[in-house]
Structures are given as structure tokens and as C-alpha cells.
Amino acid sequence: MDDATAPVERTEEEWRAQLGPEAYAVLRQGATERAWTGEYVSTTTTGVYRCRACGAELFRSTTKFESHCGWPSFYDPSDTSAVTLHEDGSLGMIRTEVRCARCGSHLGHVFRGEGYPTPTDDRYCINSIALTLEADDSVE
Ligand SMILES: [Zn+2]
Hints:
By secondary structure, the chain is mainly beta.
């Protein structure tokens, strides 16, 4: 039985086989997909966004907003414990990396206080390929 809250431990070889090369590069190696190329950039479907690596619920469509940055953007995770935040000093910038709390996979970055008209003014800038959208067919 799959416990949705249990930590997920896999070897890098297992992740590579499960995810395929593109998702592996983002989720396990911290790569960023090119802007405007991800399948969920402009998606407005109602549903739950899960971690593509482990299936944990990360975001809901209700917090997705149009940021015009080229990546799916959310103003809040489904639950504050769904993701973990880490300082990232790569590319000569200090950014805050967002990872899946359950499996530790790289999801994207969070940017704060940019002036978006959302309840938090946080922008969780997430790679589409790190997510799987589970559409909620019961909601019109
Ligand atoms: Zn995960």
C-alpha cells in the first residue's frame, strides 16, 4: 500500500529510469525547462498538481495565476509542508529553490514581493515537467 506521506527513497539510476531524460534533468539535477515550453504554462484546468516524481500533492489550480513569466506560477502550495525551500546561489544569484518535501526533487524557485495582485505576492515558479495535473472532473 502506498503511503502518500512516507518519504520516497530511490537511487539515481531508478529515478533516471522512471522519469526519462528530460524530467530527470529538472527534478533530480535542478535544470530549468525553457520558458513558454512547458505543457502547463497557460493551463486553467481545475485540479491538483502532483509531483511527477513521487505523486505527492503540491499545488492546486485555485492558486495558479497568470504571471506572464513563461512557467506555471502559483501563489501558495497546497499545504505549507508540501514543499521545502532552500537557498540557491547558482547562476550568480541568490534564489530560493523549491523542492518536493516528500522525495526531495527540484521543482523550481519561489520569488517574493514582486507586486502580483495575489493573496501572498509569492510566485512559485515551477517547471511543468516537474508536475502532473490531475484534473478534477467533478468541478465544472
Ligand atoms: Zn516528489
